């Protein structure tokens, strides 16, 4: 996860956080200003309109997502290590921006009307396909069955964070990188041991 280097990035970061938390991209400017600890005029200075800010939030999201995507291509690590680091980044991102699925849902519905939404959709598809191929090789599963394992894997890394209140899960057990990596290794071990031969 990259560090925020400017007031503008801090505003975008907090806007993305609030959009995920509230489940909508329609977040009031005043709420964003309060969360970013800036005044409304600072938001007006960096972004001429709420629509322009929303476009930049999407660009910020794409930049962060592309960073996560690059982990899957890093040949300094084994495929299993790449998958573990990738899943950790997804979990960290979900902890930082709870309920972020709102951005993806909007991108899917607007992909034919808006270039940034189309980019978000395409980057997400690329990541899922690449992750699926790596997972299939790691757990030695046939192409026909890997969809189930991908669903189990992605659900296992996202559900505990996004639904901790509903499932009485103590989110603190996944708060550090070391804890998350141990958890992800366990998921992979379970998938290896229960790999579906017939599906």
Short summary of the structure?
Helix content is 72%, strand content 0%. By secondary structure, it is mainly α. Pfam families: TetR_N.
Q: What does this molecule look like?
A:
72% of the residues lie in helices and 0% in strands. It is mainly α and 199 residues long. It has one domain: Orthogonal Bundle (Tetracycline Repressor, domain 2), CATH 1.10.357. Helix 1 packs across helix 4. The longest helix has 25 residues. The relative contact order is 0.11. The model has no long low-confidence stretch (mean pLDDT 85).
Give the helix/strand layout:
Elements: H1 7-22, H2 29-36, H3 40-46, H4 50-71, H5 79-96, H6 101-110, H7 115-139, H8 146-162, H9 164-167, H10 177-193
Helix pairs in contact: 1-2, 1-4, 4-7, 5-8, 5-10, 6-7, 7-8, 8-10
Summary tags:
199 residues, mainly alpha, 10 helices, 72% helix
Nearest-integer average pLDDT: 85
Beta percentage is: under 5%
How much is the radius of gyration in Å? 18 Å
Largest sheet: none
Number of strands: 0
Oligomer: single chain
Please estimate the helix content. Answer: over 70%
Span of the ends, CA to CA = 37 Å
Task: Name the helix and strand elements from N-terminus to C-terminus, one letter apiece.
Answer: HHHHHHHHHH
Shape: globular
CATH topology: Tetracycline Repressor, domain 2
Question: What is the CATH architecture term?
Answer: Orthogonal Bundle
Count of individual domains: 1
Class per helix and strand makeup: mainly alpha
Q: CATH homologous superfamily?
A: Tetracycline Repressor, domain 2
How many DSSP helices?
A: 10
């Amino acid at each position: 996860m990259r560090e925020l280097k400017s007031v503008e990035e801090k505003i975008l970061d907090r806007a993305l956080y609030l959009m995920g938390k509230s489940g909508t991209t329609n977040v009031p400017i005043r709420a964003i200003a309060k969360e970013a600890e800036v005044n409304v005029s600072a938001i007006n200075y960096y972004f001429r309109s709420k629509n322009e800010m929303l476009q930049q939030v999407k660009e910020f999201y794409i930049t962060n997502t592309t960073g996560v995507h690059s982990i899957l291509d890093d040949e300094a690590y084994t495929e299993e290590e790449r998958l573990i680091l990738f899943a950790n980044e997804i979990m960290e991102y979900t902890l930082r921006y709870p309920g972020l699925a709102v951005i993806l849902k909007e991108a899917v519905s607007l992909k034919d009307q808006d270039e940034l939404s189309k980019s978000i959709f395409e980057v997400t598809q690329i990541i899922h396909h690449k992750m699926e191929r790596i997972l299939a090789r790691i757990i030695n599963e046939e192409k026909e069955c890997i969809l189930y394992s991908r669903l189990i894997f992605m659900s296992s890394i996202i559900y505990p964070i996004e639904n901790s209140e509903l499932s009485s899960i103590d989110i603190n057990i996944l708060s550090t990188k070391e804890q998350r990596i141990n958890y992800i290794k366990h998921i992979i071990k379970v998938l290896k041991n229960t790999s579906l031969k017939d599906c």
